[in-house]
Automatic annotation (TrEMBL):
Biased composition (Basic residues): 19-38
Biased composition (Basic and acidic residues): 1-18, 39-64
Region ranges (Disordered): 1-78
Record-given protein name: Uncharacterized protein
Amino acid sequence: MSEILHVEEEKGFMEKMKAKARYHKEKSKERRKKKKEKQQKEKQEKEQKKQEVQEKKEDDHSVKSNDGGCCTGGGYSS
């Protein structure tokens, strides 16, 4: 009779351990998913910022006049 009771206790213990393992596996899966989403979001924000900087540079170049720059006009008199 005590052997049967012992076996039942082991089964209960094993079920509890399996439940813990499932719980931790799920939590780990959720953490990995959140981490991946966060990395993807950061990458997307970085790309967007990079694109905005590129557009700003292009706008700055188009605003400048194209009169030949600083090297026109001579400046030497003889």
